[in-house]
Design brief:
Blueprint lengths: L1 H17 L3 E4 L4 E4 L4 E8 L10 E5 L7 E5 L8 H9 L2 E7 L2 E6 L8 E6 L12 E9 L4 E4 L5 E3 L4 E8 L6 E11 L2 E8 L5 E3 L4 H5 L3 E5 L4 E6 L8 E13 L3 E18 L1 H4 L1 E6 L7 E4 L5 E8 L7 E8 L2 E6 L5 E3 L12 E8 L2 E7 L7 E12 L11 E8 L3 E5 L5 E10 L8 E11 L6 E10 L10 E7 L5 E3 L4 H6 L2 E7 L2 E6 L8 E12 L5 E8 L3 E3 L7 E10 L8 E10 L5 E9 L7 E6 L5 E3 L11 E7 L2 E6 L8 E11 L8 E7 L3 E3 L7 E8 L3 E2 L5 E10 L8 E11 L5 E8 L5 E3 L7 E8 L2 E7 L7 E12 L6 E3 L3 E2 L3 E5 L3 H33 L13 H7 L1
Parallel strand pairs: 2-9, 11-19, 21-30, 52-62
Antiparallel strand pairs: 1-3, 3-7, 4-5, 4-8, 6-7, 8-9, 10-12, 12-17, 13-14, 13-18, 14-15, 16-17, 18-19, 20-22, 22-27, 23-24, 23-28, 24-25, 26-27, 28-29, 28-30, 31-32, 32-37, 33-34, 33-38, 34-35, 36-37, 38-39, 38-40, 41-42, 42-47, 43-44, 43-48, 44-45, 46-47, 48-49, 48-50, 51-53, 53-58, 54-55, ...
GO cellular component, one term: membrane
Keywords: Disulfide bond, Immunoglobulin domain, Membrane, Receptor, Repeat, Signal, Transmembrane, Transmembrane helix
Protein name: Prostaglandin F2 receptor negative regulator isoform X2
Length: 889
C-alpha cells in the first residue's frame, strides 16, 4: 500500500514538472497604416487551472518607458484614463476567440499607438513555471498611398486595342510593397482582370486566364509608379466600367503577406461598337458599277466586284463568299485560301470556271469564264468578319470569334441563248394481250431545230401506275435515263430488272428511243411518257443540258384474266395382285397462263375422308423428294418423273396390302418474273383419284403378353413375355418376321405412355432414353416370342406395360414381303415393393459391429494406460506416529 502511494505522488510531480505556461502574440514588428484597423492575437497554452483564461493588455512608447494599461477581459475598470474613452466607444476592444485565445482590436490606429504591446495572463497554476507575458512592437506609418488612373476612351470599335493606365505610388518610410489590380464592373458585379504585385507576381481572373496566356492581355510596367494593362482585340463582352485598385502590403515573419491599406478608383466607362454596325457590303458589275443586272452571251466572262467598308479593318480577318441563287460558288477564307465549292451531289457544278482574288484592301473580284445557261442567277457577296481573341504576340495561333456577317444586294445575271426545239411521238410497237407477253414502246424525235453541231439527245422514261394495280397507291416512278453521252441511269424501282436484262432502254436510231419488256407484269400496266433532253458541249468540254420536252402519255393495259389449271390422272398399269407394278400418268392443261414450271405432289389415303399422306414431290426445277409416309426401304420402288411438257408419270413397284388406297396428283403452276428470280406461285389444282385395290388371303396373327410375377422388390429383374401366334395359311419360319415395340405407362405423376424399346424385323434393337437407374433388354426366345427384361428395378418402374407388333411375311403369290396389320397386346401391371428389413439389416449389423469394436478398444486402452503411466514407483510407508503426521500436514 505504501509503495502504491509513493508511485502516485511521484507521477503527479512528474506531470506537474512537465507543464510550463506559454504566452504568445503575433510575430512582429507589425507595420500598419494610420487610420486603418489593427488586430493583435494572444493565446496561452500548457497552463493549469480553469479552462477559460483571462488576459490583460498594456503598452509603452518604447521598451523602457512606463507601461499604460489598455484593457482586460475580467476588469472593466482596468483601462488607463487616457484610453478609457476609446475603450468605451469601441475603438479599442478585446474579443475572446477561444477559452485560451483573445484578439486586441483597434478600429482606427493612431500614430500615438505606436510602441510595444504586452499581453499578460494572471497565474492560475499551482506551480510557477513558463512565461506569463509576451510583447510585440507596433509601427504606425502615415497613409501616403495614391492611385491616379488615366481615363480610357469612352467608345472604341470592336477588334481594337485598349490601354488601361494607372499610377500607384506611396512614400517609402518602412519596408512595404505595392500591388495594382484592374477590374471590370458590369451592373452590380465586379470581376478582377489582372493583379500585379506585391512582389512582381501576376494573378489573372478566372475568365481572363486563357486570354492572358494567348497574349490577348499584356502588362506593361512603367516608371514612377505607372502601370499599363493592354487588352487586345476587344469584343462587346469587354464593355463596362473599368476600375484600378492600388494596395500597400507588409511582409511579416513566417512569409505572410498583410494588406495594410488599399485605394480603388474608377477609370471610366468603355463602350465597344459592334463590327456589324459599321460593316457594309456591296456587289456590282466591273463594267457597270451602278447596274444591278447583266446580260451575257454563252462563252463570255462574268466579272463582279465585292466592296467592303468597315471601321478598324486592319484588326479584322474577312471571309468572302460569292453565291448564285443562294448556293456557294467560291470562297476566300480568312487565311487567303480560295476554295471552289461543289454541287449538293458532290460532283463539280456544271458552271463556268470561277476564280476569286483580292484587288484592294476592301475589294474582291469574281471572274467566271465561259458562261452558259447554267451560270444564270442572282449573284451576291457574303462577308464574315472575324476577331482574334488571342493577342498579336500569339503568332496567329489565337482563337477566332465571328463578329459580324452581312450579305450584299444581288446582281442578276442572264445568259442569252437559243434553245433547241423538237417534237415527240410515243407509239406502241408490241402491245401485250395478257400477262407475261412482251411490251415494246418507241419514242420518235422529229422537227429538230437549233441543235448545235456536236449536240446530242438523251431520254428519260417515266411510268405511272393505274389505280388499283400493285401494292402501292397510284404513283409516278422514273424507269431510267439515257443521258447525252449514252450512259444508262436506272431508276430505283426498275434497277434490278434493267440489270438482269428482262427490260431494256436503247437508242435504235439517232432520233428514236425504245423501251422493251420481255415479260410484262400486271404492275407494268399504266401510263408511259418519254422526256427527251438536248445536250451541248460547254467551253470546258462538259455536256450541258440546254432543252427538255416531254411526250404525251401513252396508256398500256390488257385484260387480266386469272390463270386456271386442270389436272387429269389416268391409270396406265393396273396392280391386280400383290407384288405387281402400279403406274399413273397426270396430264396438265392451262388457260391464261404463259410459260410456267410445275411442282407435283403424289398423295394417297386409305379411304375417302381418311388422313392424306404425301408419297413423293417434284419441284419446278425437277428435284425429286420422298414424303414422310414413304418407307426408306422401298424408295427404290418409287418413281416420279416428267414425261412431257405438261405430263408426269408415277410408278410404284411391288405393291403390298398396305399400299391399297386412293392416289392422285396435286400440281402447282409457278412463274418467274425474270431469270434468276425465285419462283412465284400462279395457281394449283388436284387431279381425280385412282384406286389400288386387290385381295390376297394371307395368314392371321394374334398377340398376348405375360409376366412371371406382377410384384418384385427393388434391384430384382422383372421379365415380361410378348407372344405372337399365326393361323390360316401359315408361312414358313424363314418367311415370317416381326417388328415389336414395348410401351410403359407410369400411373404416378400423370398417366403418360412412353416407348421403352423396339426390335425391327431384321433383329436390330433400339432402346429409348429413360429417367431411371434400371436397365432393360430384349430377348427373342423363338420366332414368335419376345422377352422384355428390366434389370435392377426401381420404384419408378411401377406401372402398366404392353407391346405392339407388326408381322411381315413373304407372299407366296408375288414373292414379295408383305406387311400385315399392327397388333396391340393387353396391359399388365408391375409393382416394385419396398423391403423394409432388407434395407435396414445391413445398416443395423454395421452399427452393432462398430459399437462393440469401439468398446473393446476403449477397454484395452484404459488397461494399458493404468499399467504404464499411472504406477507410483517411490512408495513410502505411512508413519505410525499420527500426531507427527498431522503436524507435518
Amino acid at each position: 500500500m505504501d509503495k502504491c502511494l509513493i508511485t502516485l505522488v511521484f507521477s503527479v510531480l512528474m506531470i506537474g514538472g512537465c507543464l510550463a505556461r506559454v504566452v504568445t502574440v503575433s510575430s512582429g514588428p507589425l507595420i500598419r497604416v494610420e487610420g486603418q484597423p489593427v488586430s493583435i492575437r494572444c493565446d496561452v497554452s500548457e497552463y493549469m487551472g480553469p479552462r477559460e483564461q483571462d488576459f490583460e493588455w498594456e503598452m509603452s512608447r518604447d521598451a523602457k518607458a512606463q507601461r499604460i494599461k489598455i484593457i482586460s477581459t475580467f476588469d472593466s475598470g482596468y483601462s488607463h484614463a487616457s484610453l478609457s474613452k476609446r475603450v468605451a466607444s469601441g475603438d479599442i476592444s478585446v474579443v475572446r476567440l477561444k477559452d485560451n485565445e483573445v484578439e486586441l482590436k483597434i478600429a482606427e490606429v493612431k500614430s500615438v499607438d505606436a510602441g510595444f504591446f504586452y499581453c499578460q495572463t494572471p497565474s492560475t497554476d499551482s506551480v510557477i513555471s513558463g512565461n506569463y507575458e509576451a510583447q510585440v512592437q507596433l509601427i504606425v506609418i502615415p497613409n501616403t498611398l495614391k492611385v491616379s488612373p488615366q481615363t480610357p476612351p469612352s467608345v472604341i470599335p470592336e477588334g481594337s486595342d485598349i490601354t488601361l493606365s494607372c499610377n500607384v505610388t506611396r512614400e517609402l518610410t518602412q519596408s512595404t510593397y505595392l500591388s495594382v489590380t484592374w477590374s471590370l464592373k458590369k451592373g452590380g458585379t465586379s470581376e478582377e482582370i489582372l493583379t500585379f504585385g506585391p512582389q512582381g507576381g501576376v494573378v489573372t481572373g478566372q475568365k481572363y486566364t486563357r486570354r492572358y496566356t494567348d497574349g490577348g492581355i499584356r502588362l506593361v510596367p512603367g516608371k514612377n509608379g505607372v502601370f499599363e494593362l493592354v487588352i487586345s482585340r476587344v469584343t462587346t463582352s469587354d464593355e463596362g466600367i473599368y476600375e484600378c485598385n492600388g494596395t500597400e502590403w507588409t511582409h511579416e515573419k513566417g512569409g505572410k503577406w498583410i494588406k495594410i491599406v488599399e485605394s480603388k478608383r474608377e477609370m471610366g466607362t468603355v463602350a465597344v461598337t459592334p463590327t456589324g454596325q459599321s460593316l457594309s457590303v456591296t456587289s456590282s458589275s466591273a463594267s457597270s458599277p451602278s447596274s444591278t443586272s447583266m446580260l451575257l452571251s454563252p462563252g463570255d466572262t462574268l466579272t463582279l466586284l465585292c466592296s467592303v467598308a468597315v471601321d478598324n479593318l486592319p484588326s479584322l480577318a474577312l471571309e468572302v463568299t460569292w453565291l448564285a441563287d443562294g448556293r456557294d460558288i467560291i470562297t476566300m477564307e480568312r487565311s487567303g485560301v480560295v476554295i471552289s465549292n461543289t454541287s449538293s451531289s458532290g460532283t463539280p457544278a456544271k458552271r463556268g470556271e470561277a476564280s476569286l482574288e483580292r484587288t484592294g484592301a476592301e475589294t474582291y473580284r469574281l471572274a467566271v469564264r465561259g458562261v452558259s445557261g447554267e451560270d444564270e442567277g442572282a449573284y451576291a457577296c457574303r462577308i464574315r468578319a472575324f476577331v482574334e481573341k488571342g493577342g498579336r504576340s500569339a503568332g496567329g495561333g489565337g482563337r477566332w470569334h465571328m463578329a459580324a456577317e452581312k450579305m450584299s444586294s444581288p446582281v442578276t445575271v442572264k445568259v442569252s441563248q437559243i434553245k433547241p426545239s423538237f417534237s415527240l411521238t410515243l407509239e406502241p410497237i408490241l402491245s401485250p394481250q395478257m400477262t407475261a407477253e412482251p411490251t415494246e414502246l418507241a419514242c420518235h424525235v422529229t422537227n429538230i431545230t437549233h441543235l448545235p453541231t456536236g449536240g446530242r439527245l438523251g431520254v428519260t422514261w417515266k411510268h405511272t401506275t393505274l389505280p388499283g394495280i400493285g401494292d402501292e397507291p397510284q404513283d409516278s416512278n422514273p424507269i431510267g435515263t439515257l443521258d447525252g453521252q449514252g450512259n444508262l441511269l436506272p431508276g430505283p424501282t426498275y434497277s434490278d430488272r434493267l440489270k438482269s436484262g428482262v427490260m431494256s432502254l436503247s437508242r435504235v436510231q439517232p432520233n428514236t428511243f425504245k423501251l422493251q419488256f420481255l415479260r410484262s407484269q400486271e404492275i407494268d400496266m399504266g401510263e408511259y411518257a418519254c422526256t427527251v433532253s438536248a445536250w451541248t458541249i460547254s467551253s470546258q468540254g462538259d455536256m450541258v443540258k440546254t432543252a427538255e420536252y416531254e411526250s404525251s402519255p401513252l396508256t398500256v393495259r390488257w385484260d387480266t384474266k386469272r390463270p386456271s389449271l386442270n389436272v387429269v390422272a389416268k391409270r396406265t398399269r393396273e396392280a391386280s395382285v400383290g407384288g405387281a407394278t402400279f403406274e399413273m400418268n397426270c396430264t396438265v392443261s392451262t388457260e391464261n397462263l404463259g410459260e410456267a414450271g410445275y411442282s407435283v405432289l403424289i398423295q394417297s389415303q386409305d379411304n375417302l375422308g381418311s388422313t392424306t399422306r404425301t408419297i413423293m414431290t417434284l419441284s419446278p426445277d425437277n428435284v425429286v423428294q420422298h414424303g414422310g409416309a414413304t418407307d426408306p426401304n422401298r424408295r427404290d420402288s418409287l418413281v416420279l418423273a416428267k414425261s412431257g411438257p405438261t405430263e408426269f408419270r408415277f410408278r410404284l413397284a411391288g405393291v403390298q396390302l398396305s399400299d391399297r388406297g386412293f392416289y392422285w396428283c396435286d400440281i402447282t403452276a409457278w412463274t418467274k418474273q425474270q431469270p434468276g428470280q425465285a419462283w412465284t406461285k400462279a395457281t394449283s389444282s388436284e387431279s381425280n383419284k385412282v384406286r389400288i385395290d386387290f385381295q390376297e388371303n394371307g395368314p392371321s396373327f394374334a398377340i398376348d403378353i405375360q409376366s412371371d410375377s406382377s410384384t418384385v422388390y427393388p434391384w430384382q429383374t422383372a421379365k415380361m413375355k410378348c407372344s405372337l401366334s399365326v393361323s390360316g395359311s401359315s408361312p414358313k419360319t424363314d418367311d415370317l418376321a416381326y417388328e415389336v415395340r414395348w410401351f410403359f405407362t407410369r400411373l404416378r405423376g400423370g398417366a403418360t405412355t412412353t416407348e421403352l424399346a423396339s426390335v425391327d424385323r431384321f433383329g436390330v434393337v433400339k432402346k429409348e432414353d429413360r429417367n431411371s437407374s434400371s436397365d432393360i433388354s430384349i430377348e427373342r426366345d423363338d420366332t414368335h416370342t419376345y422377352m422384355l427384361n428390366i434389370h435392377g428395378t426401381q420404384d419408378s418402374d411401377s406401372g402398366e406395360y404392353h407391346c405392339i407388333a407388326t408381322p411381315w411375311y413373304l407372299s407366296a403369290s408375288t414373292g414379295a414381303w408383305t406387311q400385315a396389320g399392327e397388333l396391340t397386346s393387353s396391359r399388365i401391371f408391375l409393382t416394385v415393393r419396398f423391403a423394409v428389413w432388407e434395407s435396414l439389416k445391413l445398416p443395423l449389423l454395421y452399427g452393432v459391429s462398430a459399437s462393440i469394436g469401439v468398446g473393446l478398444f476403449s477397454l484395452v486402452l484404459g488397461l494399458v494406460c493404468a499399467q504404464c503411466c499411472c504406477r507410483n514407483t517411490t512408495h513410502t510407508p505411512r508413519s505410525r506416529n499420527k500426531l507427527m503426521d498431522l503436524e507435518m500436514d
